């Protein structure tokens, strides 16, 4: 395989539908909530050069894009996906590392954050220097939280006034840490336990 991970160009617009389909299918298989994207939205991110794509000799292998909030005060990485044919190869971590470095270059003053239910994404974020934080430390921009409306867990988030959900909030503040920050210890057992507690509280009948 000869996988290249690059900033999107006009020639990559044709992958928009496949990206959306892959994201949605992955969420269905995992049984997790996800904010749905449209091909038009993905293409807009590509046009603004706010996206990273991984290609294997022209075949779609992975993708991730950047969103900015509060006039660039916060940025988030969304839609991180790897095509099923390229999973378990460490490609997700490579894409995330690439989009992380690109974010710091394009938005040097921004705090980088994310919310996720996936332990694999949590580990990647932890390795990059993110730390778990309450939602109150993330962007207060209502348009970010509005993006969660298509997630199956949105009613939980809404009932908690955008302060808590099944997702875990994670944050990297460039002003607090050097460019190559020390890793935060990642304890799978603790995070699994936290996830179980949240599900017991929020999903109980």
From TrEMBL:
InterPro entries in alphabetical order: Acyl_CoA_acyltransferase, GNAT_dom
Source organism, top-level taxon: Bacteria
Gene Ontology molecular functions: acyltransferase activity, transferring groups other than amino-acyl groups
Protein name: GNAT family N-acetyltransferase
Keywords per UniProt: Transferase
N-acetyltransferase domain: residues covered: 5-151
One Pfam short name: Acetyltransf_1
């Amino acid at each position: 395989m000869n996988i290249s991970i690059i900033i999107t160009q006009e020639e990559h617009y044709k992958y928009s539908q496949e990206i959306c389909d892959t994201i949605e299918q992955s969420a269905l298989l995992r049984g997790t909530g996800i904010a749905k994207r449209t091909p038009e939205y993905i293409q807009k991110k590509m046009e603004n050069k706010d996206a990273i794509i991984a290609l294997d000799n022209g075949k779609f292998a992975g993708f991730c894009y950047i969103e900015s909030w509060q006039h660039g005060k916060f940025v988030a990485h969304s839609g991180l996906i790897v095509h099923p044919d390229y999973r378990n190869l460490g490609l997700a971590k490579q894409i995330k590392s690439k989009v992380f470095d690109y974010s710091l270059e394009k938005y040097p003053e921004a705090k980088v954050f994310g919310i996720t239910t996936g332990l694999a994404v949590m580990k990647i974020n932890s390795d990059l220097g993110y730390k778990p934080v309450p939602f109150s430390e993330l962007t207060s921009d209502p348009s970010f939280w509005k993006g969660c409306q298509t997630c199956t867990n949105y009613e939980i988030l809404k009932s908690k006034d955008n302060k808590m959900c099944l997702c875990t909030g994670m944050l990297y503040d460039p002003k607090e840490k050097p460019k190559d920050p020390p890793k935060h210890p990642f304890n799978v057992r603790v995070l699994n336990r936290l996830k179980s507690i949240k599900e017991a509280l929020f999903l109980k009948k």
